[in-house]
Design brief:
By secondary structure, the protein is an all-alpha fold. The protein has 8 helices and no strands. The longest helix has 30 residues.
Length: 195
């Protein structure tokens, strides 16, 4: 079924490039948020032990997201899941940084679930946008691009944090994450065709 949509813009064409851009932004959010979130939490008076607990819960939610979002994408469509999880990622991140401490555990679960769940859906969607003969090249380029984006984002957001502080950094991370929503919308037909 994955090999059916070998149409004019399949292969390493515009749809693939757009999906790769979405993946790069998603990876940049994941890398930067996980790098700087402990500092933001400690700045709010959260103890190192509590930060460790929150990250344990966060990674547990991430494991659930990896497992469940792929199935949800198969059932309800990749695009819808991506739009919901990216929005949830941005809102939960802001909630963790500025929300009430009493909600931190729940927000950590939501954040982890959405943060890691999106990547599973995106990885699966790549296969539907390239023919079987180019799968190796397509996946190789995709993973290279998102790894570079993650590394570059960590450096870039670190510079922002040094210049403007962590509050502005997380506001920017959330804003960039939300740009994935309009960026992914043009993929509606292609992703629907591969679901």
């Amino acid at each position: 079924r994955d090999s059916q949509p070998a149409t004019r813009d399949s292969g390493l064409g515009p749809a693939y490039g757009l999906l790769t851009a979405v993946g790069m932004l998603d990876a940049s959010t994941r890398a930067a948020a996980l790098t700087f979130l402990p500092f933001a939490l400690e700045g709010r008076g959260v103890s190192p032990a509590e930060v460790g607990l929150l990250f344990t819960v966060l990674f547990g939610g991430g494991a659930a997201g990896k497992f469940l979002c792929g199935a949800l994408g198969d059932r309800f469509g990749s695009l819808g899941v991506v739009l919901i999880t990216e929005t949830a990622t941005a809102l939960a991140l802001l909630g963790l940084v500025w929300g009430p401490p009493a909600a931190a555990l729940v927000l950590a679960i939501v954040f982890g679930f959405a943060l890691n769940g999106t990547s599973s859906v995106l990885y699966a969607a790549v296969a539907g946008l390239i023919p079987e003969g180019k799968r190796g090249q397509g996946y190789g380029l995709y993973y290279t691009a998102i790894d570079i984006a993650a590394a570059a984002a960590t450096l870039a957001y670190g510079l922002v944090a040094d210049s403007l502080g962590l509050d502005w950094t997380f506001a920017l991370i959330a804003a960039v994450t939300l740009t994935i929503v309009p960026l992914a919308l043009p993929l509606r037909r292609r992703l629907a065709a591969t679901s």
